[in-house]
Write a structure and sequence with these properties.
206 residues; Rossmann fold; two-stranded antiparallel sheet
Length: 206
């Protein structure tokens, strides 16, 4: 049985019965204006992380991670080459030789490739993670323009986490659902996430 890796969010670890199995590829789907980035930063703080940014600059991501208290020495941030994001992402991933979290934010740029190339990348990524004992998190934006290969990402991914933020009674409420996770019991309820004053994920609202 694969080692279970903590997500850094206790409520999510409990929902997943201990965490994410090493070697997993996880898709995080969310609207662009949701608080999903906060979840990504929490995942990045759990262990050494390779953070690949496809849209924002690496400097902007480093600043955001620092504001959330993520140790810069444990999180390497790289810009992805816009002309060849799949090849560049895999080149960088291959440099990881220990259990680590790989974050691709957002994965939309990769999902504009043809179906075969994206599937090959995701399967190769999973193979590398299985060897190193790491986990990958793909931030999949569900905005006005969803890439044509989103179905491929969600199908190949071992797990899908869905983040939604909406206003209720004058306050923003963020909920996390787990519609799919291979090898895990089905999660029948979503998690309401609470954030501290700095924006860090604290856990479920009681």
């Amino acid at each position: 049985m694969s080692e279970q890796l903590s997500t850094g969010v206790d409520a999510l670890d409990r929902t997943l019965r201990g965490g994410v199995p090493a070697g997993s590829v996880v898709a995080v789907t969310a609207k662009p204006a949701s608080r999903a980035d906060r979840l990504l930063y929490e995942l990045a703080s759990a262990r050494r992380t390779l953070y690949l940014t496809a849209t924002r600059s690496a400097a902007a991501v480093r600043d955001a991670l620092a504001r959330d208290g993520v140790d810069a020495d444990r999180c390497a941030v790289h810009d992805l080459d816009a002309e060849r994001p799949l090849d560049h992402a895999y080149q960088l991933v291959q440099q990881t030789t220990e259990p680590a979290t790989v974050v691709i934010d957002p994965a939309n740029a990769l999902e504009r490739a043809n179906e075969g190339r994206l599937a090959d990348f995701l399967n190769a990524l999973r193979g590398h993670l299985t060897e190193t004992g790491g986990v990958a998190v793909l931030h999949c934006l569900d905005g006005r323009s969803v890439p044509p290969q989103r179905d491929v990402t969600e199908y190949v991914a071992d797990g899908v986490l869905s983040v939604a933020t909406e206003r209720r009674d004058g306050e923003l409420e963020t909920r996390l659902a787990v519609p799919k996770f291979r090898g895990k019991p089905p999660a029948t309820e979503s998690i309401e996430l609470a954030f501290d004053r700095g924006g860090r994920v604290e856990g479920p609202v009681s």
